[in-house]
Structures are given as C-alpha cells and as structure tokens.
Amino acid sequence: MLDQVNPTKLIDFRSVCRSFPKGSGDDLLVLEKVDLTINSGEIVGLLGRSGSGKSTLLRIIAGLIAPTSGDAKCRGETIVGPPNGIAMVFQSFALFPWLTVLQNVELGLEALGVDAAERRKRALAAIDLIGLDGFESAYPKELSGGMRQRVGFARALVVHPDLLLMDEPFSALDVLTAETLRTDLVDLWIEGRLPIKSVLMVTHNIEEAVLMCDRILVFSSNPGRVAAEFKVDLPHPRNRLDPAFRLLVDQLYARMTQRAEPKVPSSLGNIPGTGVGMVLNHVSSNVLSGLIETLAAPPYDGHADLPVLAGQLQLEADEILHLGESLQLLRFAQLSEGDLVLTESGKRFAHLETDARKKLFAEHLINYIPVFGLIRRVLDERPSHTAPAARFRIELEDYMSEEYADETLKTVVSWGRYAELFAYDEQAELFSLENPH
Amino acid sequence: MALQDLRVLPALGQAFRPNVWDIVALVLVIGAMVLIVYGGEQTTLPLSTLERTPISLDPVHLPFYALRTTMRMLLAIVCSIIFTFVYAAIAAKSRRAEMVLIPLLDILQSVPILGFLTFTVVFFMNLFPDNVMGAELACVFAIFTSQAWNMTFSMYQSIRNVPKDLEEATQSFHLSGWQRFWRLDVPFAMPGLIWNTMMSMSGGWFFVVASEAITVGNTTVTLPGVGSYVALAIERQNLLAIGYALLTMLLVIIAYDQLLFRPIVAWADKFRFEQIASGEPPTSWMLDLFRRTRALRALSRPFAAVNRTFSNLQVTVPAAFSQPAVEPKPSRLVDAIWFAILAIATGYAAWRAFAYLSTSLAPSDVLSAFGYGLITLARVVVLITLATLIWVPVGVWIGLRPKLAERVQPLAQFLAAFPANLAFPIFVSLIVYFRLNPNIWLSPLMILGTQWYILFNVIAGASAFPSDLREAASSFHLKGWRWWTKAVLPGIFPYYITGAITASGGSWNASIVAEVASWGDEHLSAAGLGAYIAKATEAGDYARVILGIAVMCVLVTLFNRLLWRPLYAFGERRLRLG
Fold it and tell me: Quick one: average pLDDT of B389-396?
C-alpha cells in the first residue's frame, strides 16, 4: 500500500469540464467543474437523468475522451488514453459477434500480450466465476440478453482491473434478468470473489443505485454537475421493502426533482435553454394525455408521489421525470419534492373532448413555448403562409447542438400537428398553415 | 444409402482417423495446387511461344484455356483484395487522405475499363519485353480495374460505420491499431466485402474474356484462354466452337460458385453483425465437407494459429492512421500545406493533359465525342427502360411465389455472372444473315449481360415484400394498376434501383465491345461512344481514346449523380421497409 493515510485514491478529479462544439460555433458545456474521488473498496453510483453528462464523465475516466479543462487523475497520474487497470462494461454489451464467448473474454488478455496457456486459464476462471460454464463455445447471438451481459462482465473481470466501470449495465435487460444479475454481482462482491478493487456504476435507476452502491452521487443536468452525495450504510443483502431503503429512494426522488423548483416561477424549470432556444424532448401527445388522465383519476386525484406513480406505470425514475417535466413545461402539472401535481388547466384538460383538448393544448403551446409563437408568427406574416424547416433549424442551432435541434424540431412538428397549429410536409421539409382537405 | 450414413457425425474417439471425405477433399486441394503451378509455369514463357502455339479451335484444348482464364481471374481477385485492404484502410483512417482517395475512387468507378486496356497493354509489355508475363499482367490488370472499386468502397464504408461501442471496447481493452484492424474492422467489413467480391467476380468474367485477345495499334496479343478461343471462332465463323466455349464457361462459373464462393459465404455468415440469429443461414456442401473432414480440420488449425499471431503482431501503425482516444485539434497549417500540394498536383496534371491532347485534337473533336456520347446515353436509357418494363413484372411475379423464386433466383444470378460477350457472335451472325440495321440491332447486346441484375434484385425485393402488407392490400381490394403503384412498386423500389444502377453501369462498359462487332470478314458498327473508343483503340490513336474515356467518365458520373443517387437516396429514406 502506497497511501497509508487515506484509502487509496483510484480516481481523483478536480474541476473537470467538458464541452462539445455546437452548430453555431459556440461550445455546449456538458460537464461543469466536476469533483470526484473514488477510493479502493467501494461501489460508487453515478445517478442522473439521461443526457446529464454522466456517460461523458465515465468515458473521461475510461480515457476514451479527454476533458476540456481540469485535472483528471487515475492513481495519481493524469489520464491520457485508456489507463491500465480500468475495464468497462457496456450498456449495449459491445460483444464481438464473430467471436465465441471464450474468444470474447480472451480478447482483453490478448491485447495485454498474455501467453496462450495463461490466457486460457484466466478466461476459463472468469467464465466460471460469472456463471457461464458450458457456454464457452457459443456465439453471442445464441445467448439471451442476460447471458450476453455476463460475457461482458467476464471480459472486464478477466483483466483483473482495479476499477470496473459500468455504463448502465442492466438497462438493456428485462426486469427479472436484471435483478438476478444485480444480486449475483453483489453476492460476489461481498464475498470478495471479484478480482477488482472498486466499481463505478452509471445509472438512472434510483432503486438499482440504492440496492448496490455504498455511495451515490446525484448528477444534475445542463450542465452536468455533482449535485449531492448520499451514503448508503444499509447492510447487504438489501431489502427493497425495508423502510430505510424506501426512505432513501424517496429522498433521492426528491433530490432529483428539487432543482426544478426554485426556477419554475421565473421561467421553465430545469429544461435547458430559455425563449426560442428551449430544448424540447419528444414525448408523444398520446402519452401526455394518458398521464394527465391517470393523474386526474383516483387514487391520485391530481396529486401523485413519483415513486408510486413510476411503480404503477412501470416506468423508470428517469422516464417519469422526463414526462413530468414536459407537463410542467406545458403548465399542465408541477413537479415538487418528488411529487407531480396537476394544475387547474391540467384538470380541465382531463375532462375535455378531443377537439377542445387540442384547442387548449394549442393555447398552451403558443403561450408557454416561444418557438411555437415564432413559427406561427412567421407563417402568418409570409404571403405564402409557408416556411422551410431550415429557417427555424438555423435559429435553434444558435442556441443548441445539432442533435438537440433535431430533437426539438421533431417535438415541434409532432406537438404542432396534434394541436393543429400548422401542417408540416416531411418531404419538402416545409411548415405551412394549410391543412390538407 | 451409404452416402447418407457418412453424413452422420462420427462417434467420439475416432477423431483423427481420416475418412472418405478426407480423400475427396485432399484430391480437390492437391488438384487445385497442381493446376495453379501448371498454369503459373505457362505465364513465364517467352512471347514467341504464343506464336509457335497458336490458339486452336479443337475443343480438347478448352479445359486448358478455361484453366488459364480462371487463373487470371483468381490472380485479379487476390490483387483486388489486397488493394482494397490497403486503400480502404488508409482512406478510412486518415482524414487528409480520405479527401482525395474517395472522390478518386468514385471517378475510377465510372471509367470504362476496356478503354484502360490500351495503355496498360503497352505499359506492361514494356515492363516485361518479349515475355508472356507482360500481356498476362495487362489482362489481369484489366480485370482488376473492373473489380476493385466497389469492393474498396464497401470496405471503406464498413470501417467508417463500425459500431461505436465496439470501438470503445477495443480502446478500453488496449488493443493496438493493428489488432483493432484485424479484430474489429476486417470482420465487421467481411459480409459486405464478400458480397461485393461476388458481384465483382460476376462482372470480371466479362472483362477477362474481352481482354484476352487485344489489338492495340499494330500489336496484337492473343493469350491462351476462352476469350481468345471465341475471338478465333468469330474470325473463322465457327458457331459450333462458340457453343463449346459457352458450355465451358458455364461449367467454370458453376464450379467457381460451388467450390469457392458458396463455402466462403456460408463461412462468413458468422461475421454478420447481428445480436439475434435470424433467417436461414446460408449453406454449402463444400464447406460441410471440409468441416466434416477431420484431417483437413486438423490441417486448418495451424492456419488459425498463424492468423491469431499475425493479428496480434506488435506492429506500430504510423501515427497518422491510428486514431488516438484523445483527438488533437487538426492543424490548420498542415491542412493548408496539404491543400496546396493537391492544388499544384491537380493543376500540373490538367496542364499536361491539355498540352498533350491539344496537339492532336481540335475543339470539334470534343463536340463530336460528346455527340457520340449522347447517342450511347440514349441507348442506355432506352434499354434500361425496356429491361425494366419486361423484368419488373416478371420479377414480381416470380418473387411473390417463394417456391419458384427459390429456383429462379440462382439462375438469374448465374446469368448475370455469365460473360455475355461470349454470346455476342450468335447475335451478330443473325444480324449479318438478315441484313439488319446495326445501329438498332447491336444495341441489345449492351444489356444482354446486365439486365439480369434488374431481374434478380426485383425478385429479391418481391420475396422480401412483407406478407402482412400483401394481405392488407388484398383485404382492401387493392387491384390492378392501384395494386402496382400503391403497394408493390414502392415496396420493391430500393431493390430495383440497386439493380438498375448496376445494369446501367455495366451497359456503359459493354458499349465498347457491343457497338462494334464482327463475324468473319463482316464488320458491323453502330454510331456511339463505345464504337468511338473501340475504333480509336484499334487505330492506336491514344488522344482520341483518352478523349472518349473522359467523355464517358463525365457522362456516367453525371448520370449517376443526377439520376441514380437521388433515386437511391429517396428509396432508402422513404420506401425501405422494416
């Protein structure tokens, strides 16, 4: 042991920033002054909304992308390229379809130049450990999702990394498979059978984080920052129904909706951007209507606890927050302290007929989302009552990256069509006022 | 049947005793080796041997001629693959190289290959004076130029589209650039590359046959091969010999397909990038044979080991071609220097070309070449339209009947591979016999070999047409014209476009051999750019050959950019099902 004073600092980040170039030439700040330490012997969870930059942070640790500024160190050395002793498990598994399970697991060792006999021995040991015996010669496409992710784990473990990075490793799996894999992994960890020192896990699943981690860092969006840190002292194996467990989950929910609150009266919650430059995430108007109806009906009667609502609708924390924010943006509901509360117009919406709903929706779009007002104004002013999508895309790209502009335009088209505010011809990429007869 | 019993997997413990299949396979392997060595010896003989042993129409010699033709083909494909690996890798890994290499490839693709022959023959003959090798290489080079471009494109596109997560996995597990290329880029590119190699082979037969008997100015080279055999048969007006040649080619292509390509396709199935198994995997009796033969499998083990060692070699890739995880900002200064070099090189080339051409050509020559080009363009358009009107309905009719499609599809693919120029004499003799107008009746020859691309792509499209859409169409009583325009035609459109692009490109190339034809002493010629190039080649008029090639290049490129690409993009964007 080199550091006797502290537990060994595997990762030490000081004010790390990362920005990406934006369409208009400015840079989009994704990570802002992130401080992060990972010590030996802990499982750390990085909990945040999708698009909050937590995957970017993970990739900086993995040496796959470089920070724009700040100090990123692994075992005291600045990270340049993938550091030794760090292995990664991918959300999409990232297995090589043309290699068998055994060959996939051996790959990392081959890169290290381990000789064939040793390679085989270690690979078989990893396969054995992770419960893949008998599947050595199978190809990934012959395996189920859960088995494939086990290969992903074996491939990472076989190089005996100090730090195991996991990028939402269970989110591509079904509920039951994910649960089995989580418990297996936790069991191996507490039995000390994993040849690793620490784990850093990115997730947007609150319960998953509470179930597995010793420490949870809540990540806030736009730009990404570590907003809060929670210690989890519950003993393993943890019980989801344990009141202490539930309390922590509620606290996390509250923490993740909190930042939205103080800003709501002034403008638009934690939706990035303001005015025309507001980034819109596409949510189908059907889903929004459905959610409003559910909220208005008993047992909620216009007021729902987010974890309960998420449980009933079988949605992940990230998804329910996403929907809640869209409703909040449209002033149909309000997010606060882990609750979702319908506004007066939200309650009215729930009891209207289709055409009246569309009218109300249109009103709210025009009043509360500036880009709709802009499009409508342009269409009204032009003699032809048409305008190319490029006209608005250019304006959006002054404020946001190309992908966000794409997503926002998609949302604009979909909501505008539902509200019958304007028509859109996909082939000509043209907005117009006329509706087809 | 005893044969059936042998197909059962052997019991455990007998693993290394050779079986009957070992013998069959061994004979095949040794036979192939002998043939390659024998064929190879023939290519290093002095040039005078060609004159001492002229081509003979006796069918006894045909197997030998077929062997020589096949050898050229094989050599060309090996060259194409090597070229592909190097060129595509450089283009995909270096931004600055990519700026030049990819447009260059695009232009090379539209250069009429047979026009190339003129220069390459002279070049290679000078390289190996008085040796058959020069002529052989010229021929191989001609085939190579017909094969390499689309293979390279396919590989380049694959490397550029390697899934991000796999790329990150190779980086995070510290694979070197060399390892990454062999472990990720190449396997990922494999299915596309193999498909394109097969298409190239199909096209290649046409050119190998066309380039074996070459006359450039006063040099005439006749390499022993099926193409020369046919050329002689034309001179002697021997229809029977042409029949023999057709039969030989038929057998050669079937053998090539069964012994080489099907096994490769079946083997390469594992490289298809999919996480879930889908559809029936392709099969090959030849591959099964080799997988079942224990001795041969044992033999293949050292190869696998070598392959592994090779891909794990500690090769340092030049910094320009390895993609560092942490990308530095591209240097503006180096870019500027690079652009300056390119501008100077382009300017110099333009100046030299102009200086050379302007001494022997007047502006009126350019005009007349374009005039001929438009005539050939009209031919291509009319022929593609005709082929479409005929083969789309036929293809749909066949494709919607799975049993029939299963049997017709290989036939259509085979016809596309068959060198149509072997069949030209039959048509030409008819034109001569009935005194038909060559301007009209020579035209169909251009599309004789390439129309099948339309047919088999339409069959593939119609077979893939989702049955629920068909059921929906019939439940809504969609019939007649409406059924075609609302349901089927949009459904097969992307497939049809793929076929039509290939057919149109092939027809331009074929015009050089199709617009001039002879039967004995009768020489037929149609007005057109193909004939223009062919005549200039025969006269050794290099300036006009270059002019003709350039004009064709321009027309083909414009035709592709203005018509086919937009249509293709439209089909992919709007009409691709599923």
Answer: 94
Q: Tell which residue, B178, B189, B234, B187, has the closest CA to residue B210.
A: B234
* Number of domains chain A is built from: 2
**Structure tokens belonging to residue B13:** 């413990």
When CB atoms are compared, the residue of A93, A141, A155 closest to B277 is A141
pLDDT at B10: 37
DSSP B46: B
Number of domains in chain B: 2
Are A142 and B574 inside 8 Å of each other by CB? no
If you measure CA to CA, which chain B residue comes closest to A96? Answer: B166
What domain range includes position A423? 275-432
**Structural domain contains residue A219:** yes
Residues B92 and B235 in one domain: yes
The residue of A20, A91, A96, A151 whose CB has the most chain B CBs within 10 angstroms, and thus the best one to mutate to test that interface, is A96
Beta-bridge partners for B518: B523
CATH number assigned to the domain comprising residue A243: 3.40.50.300
CB B325 within 8 A of CB B171: yes
Could you tell me the two tokens for A154? 């074996």
- Domain holding B178, by residue range, is 14-272
Cα-trace Rg, chain B: 26
Q: Which of B272, B287, B316 marks a domain boundary?
A: B272
Interface with B, mutate which of A88, A89, A98 (most B CBs under 10 A) = A98
* Tokens representing residue A102 in the block: 């055994």
Q: Is residue B320 one of the residues assigned to a domain? A: no
User: Residue A94 and residue B168: Cβ atoms within 8 Å?
Assistant: yes
| A282/A200 same-domain check | no
Query: Looking at A195, A221, A256, which one is the last position of a domain?
Result: A256
Contact B312 A98 (CB under 8 A): no
Residues of chain A that touch chain B, judged by Cβ-Cβ distance less than 8 Å? 59, 62-66, 80-82, 84, 86-88, 90-94, 96-98, 107-108, 110-113, 139-142, 148, 155, 159, 427
- d(CA B305, CA B353) in angstroms, rounded, equals 51
Asked if pLDDT for residue A220 goes beyond 80, the answer is yes
Q: Of A137, A107, A98, which is closest to residue B194 (Cα–Cα)?
A: A98
Closest CA to B76 of B126, B49, B116, B131: B116
The whole-angstrom distance between A186's CA and the closest CA on chain B is 24
Confirm whether A216 is domain-assigned. Answer: yes
Question: Is the whole-model pTM more than 0.80?
Answer: no
Model confidence at B232: pLDDT above 80: yes
- Could you tell me the two tokens for B352? 């030299």
Integer CA distances (angstroms), B394 to B384, B389, B452, B516, B568, in order: 15, 9, 12, 31, 22
Q: CB neighbours (10 Å) of residue A57?
A: 28
Q: Are B159 and B92 in contact (CB under 8 A)?
A: yes
By Cβ distance, the residue of A64, A110, A141 closest to B168 is A64
Q: Whole-angstrom Cα distance, residue B334 to residue A155?
A: 40
Smallest CA–CA distance, residue B497 to chain A, in Å, is 19
Render pLDDT for A124-158 as a digit per residue (tens, 0 to 9).
999 999 888 899 999 888 898 889 999 999 999 99
Q: What ipTM describes this predicted complex? A: 0.74
pLDDT in tens, A24-64: 566 778 888 899 999 998 999 999 877 778 888 999 999 88
Same-domain check for residues A248 and A305 = no
Instruction: List the single best residue of A105, A106, A110 to mutate versus B (max B Cβ within 10 A).
Output: A110
Q: Identify which of B166, B171, B276 has the shortest CB distance to residue A64.
A: B171
- The tokens for A317 are 């924390």
Chain B residue closest to A65 (CA)? B326
The residue whose two tokens read 């889903």 is A287
Write the CATH number for B553: 1.10.3720.10
Q: Measured between alpha carbons, how far is B150 from B159 in angstroms, rounded to an integer?
A: 14
pLDDT 10s digits, B417-453? 788 877 888 888 888 888 888 888 888 888 888 888 8
